[in-house]
Design goal:
By secondary structure, the chain is of the alpha/beta class. The chain has one domain (about 1-195): Rossmann fold (3-Layer(aba) Sandwich). It has helices at about 25-35, 65-70, 90-100, 110-120, 135-145, 150-160, 175-190, 200-210, and strands spanning about 1-5, 35-40, 45, 60, 75-80, 85-90, 100-105, 125-130, 170-175. The strands form three sheets. The protein has a four-stranded mixed beta sheet. The chain has a three-stranded mixed beta sheet with strand order 1-8-9, sandwiched between helices. A two-stranded parallel sheet has the order 2-7. Strand 5 and strand 6 form a beta hairpin. Helix 5 (about 135-145) runs antiparallel to helix 6. The termini are far apart.
């Protein structure tokens, strides 16, 4: 599941949200192809997995530090996912937006819901479905980052997330990576081009109409 939202005060600022079904790979590809796009690195209380890099993939903290952040209202959103807590720290998001960069989120449906509530006009949510739960299980097993009981819990939680797919603005099945990426990129470009999200259009239009030719 992904969510894309926009801040019209500067320029278009997409936000994307979700977990599972190959979303992280799609997010990385979107970022690689769009230089003005920045990933919001989530903070989590879960342990680091093989191959992950602290502060690149996640900010890893203990429960006490995470609770301190909650008490300080330092998260744009946070949620309990798969038995661990995840949150999107406000400070780097605000900094990126102030510098005119787009921000991409890869979070669960609860985080997507919370951001959409806070930014109802500037949030566009995309839910990415796996071809099947069996395929999702295969991907998790192939990744070899979780114990069997964790994989089973993630499958069960995936069903819970899928129940909320109808709340999203866009939805597609990730049964082919290149095709799914094309869908995501099309959504990104179309939403960035929405008239109400481009405050510069009036000045550009007036300049064209006043141009002496």
């Amino acid at each position: 599941m992904l969510e894309i939202g926009y801040d019209r005060a500067h320029r278009n600022r997409p936000r994307a949200e979700g977990r599972g079904a190959g979303k992280t790979s799609l997010c990385r590809r979107l970022m690689a192809d769009h230089g003005g796009l920045e990933l919001s690195v989530s903070m989590t209380t879960r342990g680091i997995r093989p191959g992950e890099v602290a502060d690149r993939d996640y900010h890893f903290v203990d429960d006490a530090e995470f609770q301190r952040m909650i008490d300080a209202d330092a998260f744009l959103e946070w949620a309990d996912v798969h038995g661990s807590r995840y949150g999107s720290p406000r400070a780097p998001i605000d900094r990126a937006l102030a510098e005119g960069r787009d921000v991409l989120f890869d979070i669960d449906w609860q985080g997507a819901r919370d951001i959409a509530r806070k930014c109802p006009e500037d949030a566009v949510r995309v839910f990415i479905l796996p071809p099947s739960l069996e395929e999702l299980r295969r991907r998790l097993v192939t990744r070899s980052q979780d114990a069997d009981e964790v994989i089973e819990r993630r499958i069960a939680n995936a069903k819970g997330e899928i129940e909320h797919c109808g709340d999203f603005d866009y939805i597609f099945v990730n049964d082919d990576f290149d095709r799914s990426y094309a869908e995501l990129a099309h959504i990104y470009h179309a939403e960035r081009s929405r008239r109400f999200r481009n405050v510069w259009v009036d000045a550009w239009r007036d300049a064209l109409l006043n141009e002496a030719v």
